[in-house]
Amino acid sequence: METKADQASNPPQAEAEQQDDATLALDLRIRLLECVFAGALPSSDAFTNRLSSEAASKKSLALRLERVLGQLTTILGTKPNEAIRRFVQSYDLNEPLLHLPNPLSSNKEAEPLSISEKASLVFEADAEIVQLERDLREIELLDNRGFVGAGKLADGDWSEEELVTSVIGPLQESKTTIDELEQRATTLMSRYDSYVNSLSEIFVSWDSILTTLEEDIHKLQIAKAS
């Protein structure tokens, strides 16, 4: 077992572990940026290979960071993105909020936010705060009008028998009534069509009778004149 004396006698090992923690934290942040700008995360195998040696790790981190910065410049230059542009422009103001917590000082109490940090949070959430205020006003208005609780519906203890009696029964009766009304409407339309056809036949007969009378009268007038 390693004693405290052995740990004290190996300060380079402790420093190397702290340096590995810092390298790991930096690598994780670069991976996040790669995911945001490139749309994909590197594989775990590639991540393990990058940390296989200290020199290769530092070189890989530098190259990847340079590539991420180039992608950011390309996005801002050729593909305007208002959200990213505002983030970059106000980076100095938001920078204190972007630091990852140090795992070595996890027990340390969080420091209170400064006035500028609080103001930045409020300004960033301005649209959400305004929308929340409108929603709360609408909820209050609906509550005052008695719409929020849907009357006394939520207070009722509805059993299956009560639902059958109060809901399903009237619905079935309404369906029966609707079917009867549809049948009556169909019968009325059929009778209406029959009446229209009868009237059409009557008008045709009248036209034929009147035409025959006119011809007979015309013949009588000719015979009388001669």
From TrEMBL:
Protein name: Dynactin subunit 3
A GO biological-process term: cytoskeleton-dependent cytokinesis
Bias type Polar residues, positions: 1-12
GO cellular component: dynactin complex
InterPro entries linked: DCTN3
Classification via Pfam families: Dynactin_p22 (PF07426)
Region Disordered, annotated ranges: 1-20
Superkingdom field: Eukaryota
